[in-house]
Amino acid sequence: MTITVLDSYSAMKQVLRAPAADRVTMLRSMLEPVKGMYRFFPGDVDLVTMHRWASGFPLDRDEERCLDALETLAAAGAWDRIQGALDAALAAQLMATPGLEVPAITVLVVLGDPGDAHFMGPSLGLTGNGGISGYILITLWPFPENLERLEATAVHELNHNLRYSPGGVVWNPATVTVGEHVVSEGLADAFARQLYGDELGHTRIGVPHLHDEAVFAKVVSGLDVTGMQNFTAWVHGDANAERFGVTPVGLPTGAGYAVGNRLVDTYLAATGQTAAQALHAASSEIIATALRREGASGR
């Protein structure tokens, strides 16, 4: 039941200051502790390739810019703040679900790529991956808004990790729906908001669409879609879909996050539960309850 935030500050500093010819090997060594994140991928996964795919810092340019950004993260106390937030969040979760089975969790914080226009633009300099039990990866650029939300970002990913850890919800790639992914984002944001308030707890990419009825209706129309290759378009939006070669469906960035928040908030209001108490609530139940309420209100 240990959460370990790796000292990636020292490791990244060494990589960025090393001769260019040595950086790939050094980066691969830095990423080795989270290799288990990719255990469900087919074949042998190259960690450096995954780093680049996930908008991690470059190895062949922008060294000084990245080193400056790294010092900004360090000055903000990023690693200690994330560790403290995760420990406190886990304690809060265990109070709500005392019998919860909690894995040992390894957390890696990685500086993003300032030359990646999509990462720095539509993604607002932040991505996270907490859905694989035992691992959390946060890739970010230290924009002031991201520094302000460090704790909430980490707690969001912890919620994913605990939802999909042993004894929790099973994510079956063959049968999982867009609805499960959308609900999971809503639950993770609701947990972050439970601890840090609405202003910090909402994932930023979803905020512009929280009250957009057209976006809500469109995402709801796709909740039963299966096939994980489709999820990027329905949850993250067209810009992300196009980046990763997925067919767009006509949604703005963060649409699924906005709708997930709305569905989950309606469900929590209807049941009187907190986000922590609803950690393992079935997405089908959340969706059905929320849509009944939405229909009854005439929205």
TrEMBL record:
Q: What positions does the domain DUF2268 occupy?
A: 107-287
Pfam families, alphabetically? DUF2268
User: Organism, per UniProt?
Assistant: Rugosimonospora africana
Full protein name: DUF2268 domain-containing protein
